[in-house]
Specification:
The chain contains no helices and 32 strands. The protein has a domain of about 180 residues: YVTN repeat-like/Quinoprotein amine dehydrogenase (Methylamine Dehydrogenase, Chain H, 7 Propeller). It has a five-stranded mixed beta sheet with strand order 1-18-17-16-15, with no helix packed on it. It has a four-stranded antiparallel beta sheet with strand order 2-32-31-30, with no helix packed on it. Strands 3-4-5-6 form a four-stranded antiparallel beta sheet, with no helix packed on it. The protein is an all-beta fold and about 375 residues long.
Length: about 375
C-alpha cells in the first residue's frame, strides 16, 4: 500500500481566540466511569454516551436550557467496557462497540437488541456506513484483532472483512469514506465509492511520531482530521488529488509549566510547556471548516481550518475532556469530563468528576 507523508504546514500566529461567555449545561447523572465516546443522532436531539462502566446512555436534549430539560431516554447495559457508539443515518438504530468482542445494536423504537459477534478481540470503534453497491446501510466495526468487519444487521455473518496492519485505535466514516487510525501510527483510508471497496485504498503517515488518538471525517467526506498524544492535530483532504485545501498541522492543548520540572514537557525558546494528549477531534456537521479538539488538559477549542486559526477557547474543566461531538445542526457541542489515565493509576483520584456537558454555540462560527 502506498504511504503518503503530510506537508508540515502549521497554523500561523494569530490574535488570541475569543472567549465565549455562554454557560455549559450539565447532563443528568448517568455514566459512573469515564465516557469513551459521544455521538449525536443525525436526525434529532438524541445524544449517546458510551462509558467504561459497561453501558451506553441515551439522552434527549431538545430545547435544553438547564439540566432538568435533558431527559434520559434509555440505556444499553452490556456489562463490560463500551469503547464507542454511533447512530444510524435515520436515528432508528444505536450501536455500541464493546470489550466483549461484540457490536451491540438497539432498535430505538422497539427496544429490540441485536448482537453482532465475530471479532476475536475487543471492538474499539463502530460506525454506520453507506456503500453505493450495498442494498442497505451497513455497520463497520474496528477491532484490536486488526480487522474491520462490515455487517448487514439482517445477517449473522459479516459481509466483508478488511485486514489491517495493526489494531484499530480510532475510526470514522462519512460520505463515501471509511477511515481507521491503527496502532502502527498510520491512517488507513477506504474509499467505499470504488468497486471492490472493502480494502484499504491508501495508507497515510501523520506529520508526527506520536500515536494517533482520535479521528474525524467531515460530513461531506472532503477532509479528515486526527489528534495525537503529543498535543498536535492535523487536517488533510481525503482525496490526494485535491489542491483546493492545503494540508494543516498545528499544536494544541499545551500550557506553560510553572515548575519547570514536568517530565511530560517540551522546550521552546527557553520556556517549558506541558503537552497534553488530544483525546478527541470532531468536525462540525454544518461545514468542513469548523473543527473541535478536546484534550487531557481539561480544555476544548474550536478551530477554523481554512482560516488556519483558533476561533474559540473554552474555560478549563474539572478534569480531562475525553470526548466531544457536535449536534447534527452544528448549533451545540457536547463534551465529556473524566479521568483519561494519562497519568496512570496514580492520577486516578477518588471522587474524580465524571459528567457530560452541553454548550450552545453562537451563529457564524461555521462560516
Amino acid at each position: 500500500m502506498p504511504v503518503t507523508m503530510l506537508n508540515k504546514r502549521r497554523v500561523p500566529s494569530s490574535p488570541p481566540p475569543a472567549q465565549d461567555g455562554g454557560k455549559e449545561i450539565d447532563f443528568p447523572k448517568g455514566p459512573q466511569d469515564t465516557v469513551s465516546a459521544l455521538r449525536w443522532s443525525p436526525v434529532d436531539h438524541h445524544l449517546a454516551a458510551s462509558s467504561w462502566d459497561g453501558s451506553v446512555y441515551i439522552y434527549d436534549a431538545r430545547n435544553a436550557t438547564k439540566t432538568d430539560d435533558i431527559k434520559p431516554v434509555t440505556a444499553i447495559h452490556i456489562g463490560c467496557p463500551v469503547l464507542d457508539c454511533d447512530f444510524g443515518k435515520d436515528g432508528t438504530l444505536a450501536a455500541a462497540a464493546a470489550a466483549d468482542n461484540k457490536v451491540h445494536l438497539l432498535d430505538m423504537a422497539s427496544g429490540q437488541r441485536i448482537e453482532l459477534a465475530s471479532h476475536s478481540k475487543p471492538v474499539r470503534s463502530v460506525r454506520f456506513i453507506e456503500a453505493p453497491f450495498a442494498s442497505s446501510p451497513l455497520v463497520a466495526s474496528g477491532s484490536w484483532d486488526k480487522t474491520i468487519r462490515c455487517w448487514d444487521p439482517r445477517q449473522p455473518r459479516p459481509v466483508a472483512t478488511i485486514e489491517l496492519p495493526e489494531r484499530v485505535w480510532a475510526m470514522d466514516a462519512s460520505a463515501k469514506f471509511l477511515a481507521a487510525a491503527t496502532a502502527n501510527n498510520e491512517l488507513q483510508l477506504i474509499d467505499l465509492g470504488r468497486r471492490g471497496a472493502f480494502r484499504v485504498s491508501r495508507a497515510i503517515e501523520p506529520p508526527w511520531e506520536h500515536q494517533i488518538t482520535s479521528l474525524s471525517l467531515a460530513r461531506d467526506g472532503s477532509r479528515w482530521a486526527a489528534g495525537c498524544i503529543g498535543g498536535r492535530a492535523a487536517v488533510q483532504a481525503c482525496d490526494d488529488r485535491t489542491t483546493s485545501f492545503a494540508h494543516l498541522s498545528f499544536k494544541c492543548h499545551r500550557e506553560p509549566d510553572p515548575i519547570h520540572n514536568n517530565n511530560n514537557s517540551s522546550s521552546k525558546n527557553g520556556a517549558r510547556v506541558n503537552v497534553y494528549a488530544v483525546n478527541d477531534v470532531a468536525f462540525c456537521p454544518a461545514g468542513s471548516n469548523l473543527l473541535a479538539t478536546a484534550g487531557s488538559d481539561g480544555t476544548y477549542s474550536l478551530w477554523n481550518v481554512s482560516a488556519r486559526c483558533r476561533v474559540r477557547a473554552y474555560p478549563k474543566a474539572e478534569g480531562p475532556i475525553t470526548a466531544a461531538s457536535f449536534r447534527s445542526d452544528g448549533k451545540a457541542i457536547a463534551c465529556a469530563v473524566g479521568y483519561d489515565w494519562a497519568q496512570g493509576y496514580l492520577g486516578n483520584r477518588p471522587g474524580a468528576v465524571c459528567k457530560v456537558m452541553l454548550r450552545m454555540l453562537e451563529d457564524g462560527l461555521t462560516t
